[in-house]
C-alpha cells in the first residue's frame, strides 16, 4: 500500500471519507491472511461472501470494529495508511453515529 506522510493526518469529515477508510482497512486486511482468517472466524463469513456482504449496511462498520478490537492490527494499518489510529474510531463513528459508542 502507499504510505502517506503521517505528519499530515487525513481528515474524516463525512461518510464518504469514513467509507474510504473502511475500504482501505478491508484491503489491508485481505493482504494479511492470518488476520483475515481471524476476521472470518469471528464474523462467520467466508471468502466467497465478501462481495455480497460488503454492500450490506453495517459491514464496513464491522470491519472497523474488528480493527478497534486489535491494537496491533490497528496500529499496523494506521502506519501503512499514514493516519493516526484515532482516525479509525472517528470513521467508525461517522458510519453509524447513533449505534456505536467508544
Automatic annotation (TrEMBL):
One Pfam family recorded for the sequence: DUF3572
InterPro entries recorded: DUF3572
Stated name of the protein: DUF3572 domain-containing protein
Amino acid at each position: 500500500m502507499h504510505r502517506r506522510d503521517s505528519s499530515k493526518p487525513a481528515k474524516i469529515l463525512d461518510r464518504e471519507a469514513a467509507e474510504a477508510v473502511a475500504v482501505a482497512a478491508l484491503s489491508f486486511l485481505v493482504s494479511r491472511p492470518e488476520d483475515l482468517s481471524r476476521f472470518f472466524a469471528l464474523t462467520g463469513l467466508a471468502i466467497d461472501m465478501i462481495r455480497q456482504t460488503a454492500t450490506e449496511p453495517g459491514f464496513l462498520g464491522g470491519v472497523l470494529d474488528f480493527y478497534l478490537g486489535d491494537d496491533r492490527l490497528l496500529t499496523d494499518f494506521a502506519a501503512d495508511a499514514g493516519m493516526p489510529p484515532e482516525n479509525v474510531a472517528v470513521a467508525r463513528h461517522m458510519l453509524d453515529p447513533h449505534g456505536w459508542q467508544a
